[in-house]
Write a structure and sequence with these properties.
It is a single chain. The protein has helices at residues 48-66, 73-162, 173-178, 207-210, 212-221, 224-227, 248-260, and strands spanning 39-40, 43-44. The chain is mostly helical. It has a two-stranded parallel ribbon with strand order 1-2. The chain has a domain at 46-159. It is built from seven helices and two strands.
Length: 261
């Protein structure tokens, strides 16, 4: 009363076709018994080659029926002659089958060799490509190293050309502050300075500056003297000419004073 469902198809569980039992009458040889060696998947269902075998079996049975009896010397000689002819025919057919089989085997061997050669060529191409990639990487790394060494040597030559006599020079602070490309303004990372580190160290984070309530409270605490400024024009500290311009010596003194501070 219950139905079952398996995980397998009928084709996967199919066995060989059923062959019923049979009984052969005495004195009779059915033709179909000549195909008893053929089984499902090995000769069945019959193809062109199996049909040729069946035709040859029929031809041989007809030939056996046409053999003369061995009741006289002439019939015996004729029978031997027919048997020799049939034997030569069988050997010729067998040689033809062997030639066909050898041709098929040679074709299979040729395809296998061709496939193996193609696979080997593909592996060789991959190996050559990998080697080429490795050589390219090595070449690029060598070029980068040469470029780094070249830049290093150029820097050394430039630094050496500045001091041809090899004399020791004291540090000129004024010159360093006057040159905006010096170590004072633009220190190099190879000298141990990394500007990206601790970049938010000087960032101001305060309640009175980051929030609206803090700004309101800060505004209330500011005295009126801050909002009502009284600015007096500073007197020039440098020497002024009659025309109202500052002398060059005065400007230089102001810059040196600022650098000193």
């Amino acid at each position: 009363t219950l139905g079952t469902q398996t995980d397998y198809r009928d084709g996967e569980a199919q066995t060989d076709p059923y062959s019923p039992e049979y009984v052969v009458h005495s004195g009779s040889v059915p033709e179909i018994l000549t195909l008893a060696t053929l089984t499902w998947g090995r000769g069945l269902p019959a193809g062109q080659a199996e049909m040729e075998i069946i035709d040859r079996i029929r031809e041989k049975r007809a030939w056996e029926a046409a053999l003369p009896p061995m009741d006289s010397p002439s019939n015996t000689a004729k029978r031997l002659k027919m048997m020799e002819a049939m034997e030569r025919k069988e050997w010729a057919y067998r040689e033809e089958e062997i030639d066909k089989l050898q041709k098929v085997q040679l074709e299979v061997f040729r395809k296998l060799l061709q496939r193996r050669e193609e696979n080997q060529n593909e592996l060789n191409a991959i190996r050559l490509y990998n080697q080429w990639q490795n050589h390219q990487k090595a070449k690029e790394e060598k070029i980068r190293k040469i470029q780094r060494d070249c830049a290093l040597m150029l820097r050394k030559l430039i630094a050496k050309s500045k001091n041809l006599m090899g004399k020791l020079e004291r540090r000129d602070i004024i010159k360093e502050y006057n040159d905006f490309s010096s170590q004072t303004y633009a220190p190099l990372s190879r000298m141990g300075f990394f500007p990206d580190n601790n970049s938010d160290y000087y960032a101001v984070k305060n309640f009175y500056l980051n929030t609206f309530a803090g700004l309101c409270e800060l505004e209330k605490s500011v005295p009126d003297s801050v909002s009502q400024l009284k600015i007096k024009a500073p007197k020039p500290k440098c020497t002024i000419t009659k025309t109202g311009y500052i002398k060059k010596a005065g400007r230089l003194d102001a810059v040196l004073t600022q650098v000193h501070q």
